[in-house]
Predict the 3D structure of the following.
Amino acid sequence: MLTEIALIIGLVIAVFLIARLSRYILKEVRALKVIRIYDDRHWDFDHILSQYNPYYKSLDDTVRDRFLRRVLHFMEDKEFEYIDLEKEERMPLLISAAAVQLTFGLEHYLLDYFKTIYILRENYRFGLYNMPFEGHVSEDGIYLSWANFIREFTDYSDGQNVGLHEMAHALTYVNFTVDDGKDDTFHDKFKDFSEVARPIFERMQAGESTILDPYAATNYQEFWAVSIETFFERAHAFKKQLPELYTSLCSLLNQDPLTPRKIIDATFLEEMAGTLSETALSSEVLPAPEGTQL
Ligand SMILES: [Zn+2]
């Protein structure tokens, strides 16, 4: 009897160790793959990002390289499914860049919980909703319509950006709905953000107009996602009209879009300096699907 129990315990420990070893090997293989891709394609990807992502284009040289490496890690970490459209090389690159832009000042940026990103051609119907969707986040993945994604990054001044909007939902989902790679600092600071944000949200629900799109008054999750779109695309006007909300977002995300270097506190970056395999970086997403309806 004792021998059988010892055998079972031994087996359980062996399975646990093998699982851990497999995860470690997978991470290392992925890290090596990212290094290879970086070495081979660095300038191609730099060119695409400079052309289509204004945030990347505005980055100081000292952080541009770090942004690109994060994008490659994110892209390798996800499966991209193309629904009714042909894959283009720029698609996964630019979608990954939208996520990395949002989380650039955070330590954990992989939105780990989400394994799959679905790319649709244009507006689509979802579930029982009557309105067409530009994108949404649900427990099975992040959904984005490519026509809207690329159009809204091309017009980077109107505060409409479905890529940043859905990544904002994804970030809160991983931090508050599931526990799969959350960023502790973001998680803990969200309360401070809400102290400033909630009263503004409530005033918008009561009918007040602000720089934020009226869609922000739909519910607090949409207020968050719309705030992110405006934070990046209309930073100057946002800071002028809602300075406290702007400052609280800077603090929450540890970045200021109005500065070339973006990142405010680079302490954790210095600790990681020189490491390509930022494999410990991750984060999480939302309960009901949070979409951008038209
Ligand atoms: Zn939304």
